[in-house]
C-alpha cells in the first residue's frame, strides 16, 4: 500500500495498492471521521483482496475500483 | 533580460579592523561584523572563521552557502524574499559579486523545540545521527567549497529557541553578512564584467531550458517554514516557477533544505548555460519544479505543468536535475517523461542510488522516455577523511570531530557531500 505506486511497480512488486498520501496512506484527515474510516477500510480490503487475486506481474490495485488494472508505468 | 555581472576576485580574506576589497584581498572589520550578527534576536554567540583551500580544516554544521553579491544597477535586491527582503523582480541591470569565496553560516540546530517537538533532521541525544562536515584538504575534500575561501559564520542560539525560528535568524545573518561584504564593491570598477543578454536569440540555435527539481520543506515543516529552498522567499509546494536565468544568478532561488545549500543550485549549471547562450543554444528559461508532493497524481500534475511551460517558451531541449532522492525522484523522472512526450529532448543529471553491492538498480524508478542521463556518482565518498588540525563552525567542537572519519557510502538523502549538479571533485573512477 503506497501513495507512490510507480516506485514499487518499478522494482517489481507484484501487488500494489494505491494509498492516499505519503503522510496518511490509509486515510484522509480532510474527511469526516466516518468517511475517513470507510476509506481506510476500502483500502485495506483492496489489499486483502489482492492477496487472493492471481497476478502475472506487477499489478496496481485501485481501491476505488473493484477490478485491478495492469500497471501502466 | 539583460544582466551584467561584475566580478571581483577574492584571493584572500583578512579579519582585521577595516572592511574593504582591494586587489583581490577582502579585509573585514571583524568586531563590527560580529556585532551586527549579535544584533539579530536569539543569538547568544557568533564568530567569524576563514577556511582556505589546502587548510587542514573541517567545517562543521554548514547550514547554507552563498556567494556575496549586490545589485548596483537595476531593480531589486539580491537573494530576494529571504528574511523579509523585497520581492521585486531581479535579473536586470548590474550585479557585483565577490568571486572565489563563499559565506557559510554554521550552526547546530535546536534538537528539541520548547514544546517538545523536534526537527526532522535533529541529532537526538543518544542517537548516532549524521554529522555534517566539509573538509578543506585531503582526499575527502570533494565539494566545490574546498576550492573557495570560505568565511564561516558560526552561531549559537539562546535557550528556548525553536528550530524554524533559529533557522530564520541564521538566514538573516547570512544575508546581512552578504550585504556587508558585497557593499565593498559598490563604486568600484570590476576587474571583469560578463554580460548576459538573454533577450537576444538566434533562431538558428535550439532553445534550451534548465529544469531543477527542488525539494520543498512544506511536507515536513509546513507551508511557511524557512527550512526549505525558496523561490523569492517562498518555500512551499507550488506549481512550477518559470524564472529567467538571470533572476537565478541574482539569487531568486535561495535557502537550504536539509543539506542542500544554495550555491550549487545557482552557481553551477545556470552561469555555464548563460555563457553559452547565443553560441550553442538559446537559454530560454529555468523551470523550477517543487518536489515532496505527497500523492502520485500531484507529482504527475507538476511534471505535466513543467512540460507545458517548456512548450510555451519554445524549448527544444531540457536539462533536468534533482536534489533529494527517494520519493522526490518521482517528480524528477515524471518531468523527464512529460518533457520527452512533448517532443523536447531531455537529459537527466542525477546521482545514482547506492548499488548495495550490485543488488540494487541505479535509479529508484525509471521509464522508457528516460533515454539520456549523466551520472554524478552516488553521493558516496569512498575514502578516509584524514585527521584535521582545526575544526570550525561550532564554538566547542567535540574532540573526535577532528579525528579521521570513515568512508561514506551512497545512502539516500543523508549525505552532506552529494553532488547533484556535477560540480563536485569526484570523477567516474571514484565510483
Largest sheet of chain B: 6 strands, mixed
* CA distance, first residue to last residue of chain A: 17 Å
Number of helices of chain A: 2
- On the 0-100 scale, what is the average pLDDT of chain B? 93
Overall strand count of chain A: 3
- In terms of DSSP E residues, the strand content of chain B is 25-35%
Spans where pLDDT lies below 50 across 5 or more residues of chain A:
none
- Structurally, the number of domains of chain A stands at 1
Largest pleated sheet of chain A: 3 strands, mixed
| Radius of gyration of chain B, whole Å | 21 Å
Strand order of the largest sheet of chain A: 1-2-3
Helix content of chain A: 25-40%
Descriptive overview:
- The complex is a heterodimer of chains A (73) and B (431).
- Chain A has two helices and three strands, in the order H-E-H-E-E.
- Chain A is α+β, with helices and mostly antiparallel strands and 73 residues long.
- The longest helix of chain A is centred in the middle third of the chain and has 19 residues, at 33-51.
- Chain B has one domain.
- Chain B has helices spanning 30-38, 163-182, 218-221, 245-249, 262-266, 269-276, 296-312, 328-341; strands spanning 2-9, 12-16, 20-22, 25-29, 43-46, 49-51, 57-60, 69-73, 93-99, 101-106, 133-135, 149-157, 192-197, 207-215, 230-231, 241-243, 253-254, 282-291, 317-321, 345-350, 373-375, 390-392.
- In chain B, the strands form six sheets. Chain B has a six-stranded mixed beta sheet with strand order 16-18-14-19-20-21, with helices on both faces. A four-stranded mixed beta sheet of chain B has the order 8-9-1-13. In chain B, strands 5, 6, 10 and 12 form a four-stranded mixed beta sheet that branches.
- The two termini of chain B are 40 Å apart.
- The interface between A and B is medium-sized, with 13 and 13 residues.
Amino acid at each position: 500500500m503506497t501513495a507512490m505506486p510507480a516506485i514499487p511497480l518499478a522494482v517489481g512488486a507484484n501487488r500494489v495498492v494505491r494509498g492516499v498520501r505519503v503522510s496518511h496512506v490509509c486515510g484522509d484527515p480532510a474527511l469526516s471521521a466516518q468517511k475517513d474510516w470507510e476509506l481506510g477500510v476500502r483500502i485495506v480490503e483492496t489489499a486483502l483482496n489482492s492477496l487472493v487475486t492471481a497476478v502475472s506481474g506487477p499489478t496496481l490495485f485501485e481501491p476505488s475500483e473493484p477490478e485491478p488494472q495492469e500497471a501502466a508505468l | 533580460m539583460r544582466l551584467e555581472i561584475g566580478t571581483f576576485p577574492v584571493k584572500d580574506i583578512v579579519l582585521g579592523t577595516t572592511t574593504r576589497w582591494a586587489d583581490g584581498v577582502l579585509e573585514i572589520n571583524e568586531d563590527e561584523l560580529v556585532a551586527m550578527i549579535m544584533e539579530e534576536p536569539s543569538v547568544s554567540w557568533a564568530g567569524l572563521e576563514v577556511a582556505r583551500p589546502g587548510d587542514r580544516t573541517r567545517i562543521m554544521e554548514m547550514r547554507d552557502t552563498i556567494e556575496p553579491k549586490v545589485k548596483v544597477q537595476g531593480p531589486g535586491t539580491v537573494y530576494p524574499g529571504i528574511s523579509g527582503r523585497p520581492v521585486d523582480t531581479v535579473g536586470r541591470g548590474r550585479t557585483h559579486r565577490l568571486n572565489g569565496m563563499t559565506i557559510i553560516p554554521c550552526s547546530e540546530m535546536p534538537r528539541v523545540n520548547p514544546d517538545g517537538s523536534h526537527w526532522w533532521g535533529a541529532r537526538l541525544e543518544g542517537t548516532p545521527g549524521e554529522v555534517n562536515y566539509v573538509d578543506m584538504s585531503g582526499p575527502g575534500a570533494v565539494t566545490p567549497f574546498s576550492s573557495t575561501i570560505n568565511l564561516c559564520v558560526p552561531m549559537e542560539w539562546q535557550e528556548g529557541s525553536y528550530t524554524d525560528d533559529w533557522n530564520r535568524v541564521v538566514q538573516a545573518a547570512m544575508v546581512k553578512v552578504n550585504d556587508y561584504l558585497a557593499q565593498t564593491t559598490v563604486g568600484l570598477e570590476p576587474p571583469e564584467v560578463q554580460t548576459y543578454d538573454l533577450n537576444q536569440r538566434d533562431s538558428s540555435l535550439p532553445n534550451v531550458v534548465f529544469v531543477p527539481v527542488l525539494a520543498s520543506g512544506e511536507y515536513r515543516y509546513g507551508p511557511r517554514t524557512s527550512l526549505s529552498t525558496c523561490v523569492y522567499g517562498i518555500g512551499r509546494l507550488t506549481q512550477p516557477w518559470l524564472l529567467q536565468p538571470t533572476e537565478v544568478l541574482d539569487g531568486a532561488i535561495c535557502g537550504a533544505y536539509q543539506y542542500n545549500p544554495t550555491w550549487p543550485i545557482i552557481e553551477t549549471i545556470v552561469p555555464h548555460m548563460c555563457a553559452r547562450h547565443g553560441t550553442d543554444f538559446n537559454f530560454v528559461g529555468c523551470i523550477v519544479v517543487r518536489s515532496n508532493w505527497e500523492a502520485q497524481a500531484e507529482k504527475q500534475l507538476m511534471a505535466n505543468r513543467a512540460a507545458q511551460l517548456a512548450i510555451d517558451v519554445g524549448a527544444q531541449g531540457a536539462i533536468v536535475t534533482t536534489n533529494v532522492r527517494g520519493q522526490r525522484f518521482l517528480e524528477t523522472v515524471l518531468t523527464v517523461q512529460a518533457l520527452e512526450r512533448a517532443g523536447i529532448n531531455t537529459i537527466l543529471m542525477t546521482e545514482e542510488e547506492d548499488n548495495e553491492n550490485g543488488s540494487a538498480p541505479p535509479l529508484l524508478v525509471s521509464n522508457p522516455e528516460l533515454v539520456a542521463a549523466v551520472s554524478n556518482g552516488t553521493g558516496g565518498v569512498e575514502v578516509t577523511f584524514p585527521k584535521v588540525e582545526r575544526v570550525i563552525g561550532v564554538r566547542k567542537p567535540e574532540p573526535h570531530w577532528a579525528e579521521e572519519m570513515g568512508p561514506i557510502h551512497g545512502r539516500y538523502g543523508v549525505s552532506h557531500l552529494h553532488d547533484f549538479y556535477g560540480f563536485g571533485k569526484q570523477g567516474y573512477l571514484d565510483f
